[in-house]
Each structure stands twice: as C-alpha cells, then as structure tokens.
What we know:
Helix 4 packs across helix 15. This protein has a seven-stranded mixed sheet, sandwiched between helices. By secondary structure, it is α/β, with parallel strands linked by helices.
Amino acid sequence: MNPERPIPTHVPVLIKETIEALAVRPGGRYIDCTLGGGGHAAAILDRSSPGGKLLGIDADPEAIEIARTRLEAYSNSVLLINENFVNLQAICIKYDFFPVHGILFDLGLSSLQLDSNVRGFSFQLDGPLDMRLNPSQEITAADIVNTSTEAELAHLIRTYGEEAHSRRIARHIVKERPIKTTLQLARTIERAVRGRRGRIHPATRTFQALRIAVNQELKHLEAVLKQAIDLLGFEGRLVVISYHSLEDRMVKQSMRQESMGCICPPGTPTCICEHTPSLRLVRKRVITPSPTEVQLNPRSRSAKLRAAERIITRDEYYNDEYYKTTERLCLSMEVETGGWRRPAILKRLQRAFSVV
Ligand SMILES: C[S@@+](CC[C@H](N)C(=O)[O-])C[C@H]1O[C@@H](n2cnc3c(N)ncnc32)[C@H](O)[C@@H]1O
C-alpha cells in the first residue's frame, strides 16, 4: 500500500449487538472470518483483553493489509490470514486455533471494496468489470458477462439477483457485448428496464448476482457454516451478519436445522434421522440495525444478524462428541494439510480440548 495514502475506513455494522451476541469475554479465543477493515475485530480484541486472541481471515489481500495497520496495537494477540473462509477448518488446524469461544461472519463487501474504482463492485463508479475478492481467482465478472449464453445469464441473474427482469436484461447484455466496464454494464441494464424502475437502482440485483457467481458466495457460505459449528467449544457462539435474502435464508435454515432434535420429513411416523441438536438459538428473532444506525450508516440498512450457541454438555464433549470431533478434525487435517502424523495431532487436540 502507498504510505502517503490515508487509511480508508469501513464503519462496522451492528457492533454493540455483535459483541453481545458473541458474549465476548476476557481471555477468549475468537475468529473473525470476514476481517474487512478490522472494525469488528478491534472491538472483539478490546473486549477480550486481557489475554484474548483473534484469528482474522479475509480473501482480499488488500483488506488484510488495511486491517493489519488498524490492529497494530494488538499485534501480539492477532493472527491475520489471507484465505477464503471456505477453508476455515483447515486454517484452524494448521494454526492450532481451536476450539474457539466465538466465530463471526460479517458477509458481503466492505466500503473499502465498494468505493474502489478498480475492483468493479460498484455500478456508480467506472472501472473494469472484475468483482473478484482475490485477484488470484481465475474468473472475473467480465468473463461471465461476455462468455455465457443468454439463457445462462438470465438464469444467473434471476437466481442470484432475484431479478424479475432477468430475461430482458440478459437479452440486452448479449446484444451489447463485449462489455468491459461497470458503467457500460449499468447503462445497458438501465436501457433494458427503461420505464420499469423500482425503488433501487436497476443494476443493483444484476451486480449482486454477478458478484455471488464470481466468488461462489452461497456455495462457500453453505460449506463453512457446518465447519464453524464443529470448531466451537463448550457454549461457543456463532454470529452471522448477512445483507441479502439468499444469504440470510441459508443462515436461518442452517441454524434452525442445527437447533432441532428430529429433522425427519413431516409425516414420518417414527424418527429415523437420530439428529441431535448442536446449537441453541441465542435469539429467536433476527437482529437489525436501529433507525439511528441506518441514518448514520445507510449501508447498514439491509443487515440481519443471527446468533446461536453450541449446546454440547461438558460430559458429551469429553465423551462421544469429543471423539467424533477429534476424528473429523484429524481426517480433514490429513486431507487438507497432509504430512502431520495422527498421534501427534491427537495429542495436540487433547491438549486443546482440555482447556475448554
Ligand atoms: C462487510 S466486510 C467485513 C467488515 C468488517 N467486519 C469490519 O468491521 O471492517 C466483508 C469482508 O469479508 C470478506 N469476504 C467475503 N467473502 C469471503 C470469503 N469467502 N472468505 C474470506 N473473506 C471473505 C470481504 O473481502 C470483505 O473484506
């Protein structure tokens, strides 16, 4: 980063509610899976001091550098990793960071990314049609826009953008190709839906759809929620803030399912699933920002926070669940990181779990 450039900022959303939902305590161990500008991370480190530790993850290398500067004062208590959170379990095993007292996901993009004219996330700034969280990813939004068939584009825009005019937009995009910049795409969409404007800018939903597709956001979220639950120690908390209905639906369903006993299909005469709940919902209802927060930070308006707590008993933890978790972690460790010998891993796991 250029040292002359002022450090850009992102205003963390639902900060007080997040710290409360995570039940942050001194000496606790936390993971911020979406580090961004480090705002939530700084608040967690403040509240978990003395002795707190934080593992911060972000797919965007620039976010890691910005957060590193912001969290300089806590450098002995943080470990920052530039990785996709879909690899959460492997990261925790590699860095010996589990079990943990709390895991946070503040999904989506930071203002640092949205306000950049070179990342291609904004339809209000002209820039290359990129949208990759990490520049080392292969596929950009331009690749998808310029190589997909009209039917594929319409499907993607409808599924990931929940856009009612998906077919009309796809048709105009195909006619206009090649499309290389964000403004060129935004203008094409404006022309496609002329006279049909709703409350939001007509390009909002298509840009959301492309971003989800480029970064495989829903696939990664689905995969990581299960991993996160396994990493939580006794009474550990999982907190997820989402910004659109597709993500929130996935989080809501996953937490609800994990908090239920039987998950057999309705009408099944006797339970055959043998499902045991692994979570307790901290609040039944979703938490949203207050009108004051929305006024101060309009980008918070669509935020939805959901929180759940791991509900294993200590006995279960040291018996069945402990060994199941150990087994699972050992296996994924062998698969993901290779080279670590099982007895050594088991010894480390036993040490780690005995401090729960
Ligand atoms: C809303 S911002 C987080 C802001 C942060 N809570 C703060 O207070 O500054 C979301 C961040 O998550 C990151 N992100 C999104 N999806 C990710 C993924 N699959 N893996 C890792 N990081 C991801 C983005 O790069 C972005 O920096």
